[in-house]
Design brief:
The complex is a heterodimer of chains A (410) and B (138). Chain A has 19 helices and 13 strands. In chain A, helix 10 packs across helix 13, helix 11 packs parallel to helix 18 and helix 14 runs parallel beside helix 16. Helices cover 44% and strands 13% of the residues of chain A. In chain A, 56% of the residues are buried. Chain A is of the alpha/beta class and 410 residues long. Chain B has 138 residues and is of the alpha/beta class. In chain B, strands 1, 2, 3, 4, 7, 8, 9, 10 and 11 form a nine-stranded mixed β-sheet that branches. Chain B has a two-stranded antiparallel ribbon with strand order 5-6. Chain B is globular, with a radius of gyration of 13 Å. The chains are: A alpha/beta (410), B alpha/beta (138). At the A-B interface, helix 2, helix 3, helix 9 and helix 11 of A face strand 2, helix 1, strand 5, helix 2 and helix 3 of B.
Chain lengths: 410, 138
Amino acid sequence: MDLNQEEKAILGGEFGPVVKAALEHQIKVGDFFGAADFVEVSQSHIMADTESLGAAGVQWLESLASHPLQERLVRIPTITDPRGTDFSKAHVLKQTQSMLSLEERAIKALMRLGVTMTDTCINYQTIMAPILGEHVAFGDTGVVIYSNSVCGARSNFEGGPSALAAGLTGRTPRYGYHLDEHRRATHLFRVQYGPKTLNEWGALGGLIGRTCANYWTVPYIEGIAEVPGSDELKHFGAAMASFGSNALFHLAGITPEARIFSNLKSLHLTAIEIHEADIMGLQNSYRVTDEVDVVVFSAPQLSIIELRDLAAMCAGKTFLKPMLAVTSPQVKPDADRMGYTATIEAAGGTVFSGMCFYQSYAREIAQANGWKRLATNSAKMVNILGGYGYVPMLASMQDCVQAAVTGRLA
Amino acid sequence: MSAVFKAEFGMGKTIQAQCLVASDGFSARYDLDRIAGRFSRPAHKLFGEPYHGKILVLDTAKGGVATAWMLYEMKSRNIFPAAIVLNTVNPILAQGAAHADIPMLCGFSVDITQAIVNGSWLRLDPKAKILSIIDTVT
């Protein structure tokens, strides 16, 4: 990689060992992908739940945080993905003290590095949405695909160590989705059915992702007649990224880069048709039983609008089964203020803040609570939870709420 | 069938070990019980297989960013794959391999999951970007 004067100075140790090690890590990755040089980024977003970090990862963070102040601080706004717990509600999940202690240590270390603990995977809805052409280093696949596709920003998937490195150095290797040539459509999908609910949007995204199944593919999707909202595209993109490792899509007539000529040329590609039966087929493939042990709304965190809708569905009901709804620390106060939290919890649900269900020691909390059959409207979550020992099932928010009432998914 | 394959991308030290091969994807979060050291996702073609000390030969990296931390965490507990070989890779696998110092080779002119027999002994030279079959299981 070509290095500028500042980068050479960093490598020479002029800014201390922490940022030197960060740049060395980035150069290893950049060299692997053939990056010509670095690009400066305006924001960084770090995924660092302690189930992923483990004790070793937390110790690594603490070792960085032990350096003198001027050597250890991030240079750019650096925020965080959800944590592995909501400390105020950890007892509901039956998380152990060792899990919570590890989280506390990680939070302390990240704060010493100057990281802003936003604890959210919907930062594009609630913190600072990036803009067209803005280079960023985001560390949640749902955040990256939404920011790249809907906002037109430019980011690769930046895992925890790389996102932290970007925060410390203010740059990232210029490869992948920072480059025009990787943002061109490679596949064309023609959708013959307009999704009606968030689970259907997620199922459509999952189907496209599963078909592409490659980080370097960029689907161009036409046939969506009605412009969707942010929550719809949140579920759509999160599922696509989860099922296919995709980081960018173009929606004809809707997303900003879909209008670029080089992407319109993709319309000559052989179209892969998607019908209602295909979308329902993905959803129904998870319906292996009718009984549920738990209902979870998470992944991504719920917006204030989703909580409003959920509260309306919960009003006046009594849950037989636990129902968990997860949102961000930025949304939770508004949900409290609007009465949505009280309505959901009056029915027997629990509203969590700043965490993600599958990043919260999902296997252990399943065992502690006797949870196996899980209903959710998140296609991303059904894709992930099988490996944690759950039997996840995808259904509409309405059907999931009703399942919490009756214990059975209609 | 060739016993030597040239990769497009390589990272890490030279290593030789027995391999686990499947035409399936890889994510440390989605697919593994990292405490038991086995593939735990029922739908995965390597379901139930222990992976410690093995060279994983798989198709592609799945979605999710957790693997970037998890390979380092797995290595700290001495339950980790010896190396990772993929047809296609995403940044997360590369970042995770870099952070954990686990060798990786990716990008071949053939489908590497079809070219290698499960259980074979392999030698990886990431600097030269070469994968060699030392001993094939028959």
